[in-house]
Amino acid sequence: MAKPDASPQIASAYAYAELGDGRAQHAALAEECALAISYNDLNQAVMMVSPHHLEDFAVGFSLGNGLISSIDDIYDIQLRGLGDSREARLEVSSRAFWAIKQQRRQLAGSSGCGLCGVDALEQALPALQALPGAPLPALQHLSGLRERIGEQQQLARHSGALHAALFIDAAGEIRLCREDIGRHNALDKLIGALARERIDTRGGFALVTSRCSLELLHKAVRAGLGTLVSLSAPTALTVEWARRHRLNLIHLPHHSTPRVYSPAPDEEDRP
């Protein structure tokens, strides 16, 4: 297994000129690269990602998409390439590799046969095992959290245009922050970092700075996270699935009290 990632490097500044003003100015821009992911030399996907914490991403992508069931299924990760073209080559257990090949086989076929459309729906709306349920986080752990998040986002402070996913532990302390151009990628990186560092997630929660969509819920449930907090409101389908799978789902608005969408409030408490 690869060693933990080093601290991300800040992007270089690029020159630009404001329209109507030819004077050169400089601004840092968010970086991205194409990352090819393979398992036992079988190509699986190419993702556009921020080129930081790529080992975390490879692990989190594997767990969050249900390609493996445990980090112990990964025997080794090799990163190759530089610049805008990179590879993550994972060596996985025979059991995990068989499951990956089965999933690929389910998605193969003619686009006109109709059956592959059903398979695609099963991938978009997968059968997930419900969580055991977890207590809601203490209100004081959410108080002032937006400001604390800004302090953790080193890359976004420098260049902007980046999403973040963070883990706040049972004591209310921010333990991890991962950033990426993609909101799904940011959560994958967080899930991977939690798994690689063997952090106990009980009593804590994950937070995403982006819109909370169903795909993010899938990843949180597969990773066994009991609570997911988002800075933007969730979609209706995400709320329904969160309640069905016993995931605590909380929206943290700008200027009001946190809103708990899952678990559902008692009937008598509803307007």
UniProtKB/TrEMBL annotation:
UniProt cross-references to InterPro entries, sorted A to Z: Cytidine_deaminase-like, FdhD
A Pfam family the protein falls into: FdhD-NarQ
Subcellular location: Cytoplasm
Keyword check for Cytoplasm: yes
Active site positions: C113
Claim: Transferase is one of the keywords in the record: no
Keywords linked to the UniProt accession: Cytoplasm, Molybdenum cofactor biosynthesis
Superkingdom of origin: Bacteria
Main location (coarse class): cytoplasm
Biological role stated in the UniProt entry: Required for formate dehydrogenase (FDH) activity. Acts as a sulfur carrier protein that transfers sulfur from IscS to the molybdenum cofactor prior to its insertion into FDH.
Family: Belongs to the FdhD family.
HAMAP family: FdhD (MF_00187)
Protein name listed in UniProt: Sulfur carrier protein FdhD
Organism: Ectopseudomonas khazarica
Gene for this chain: fdhD
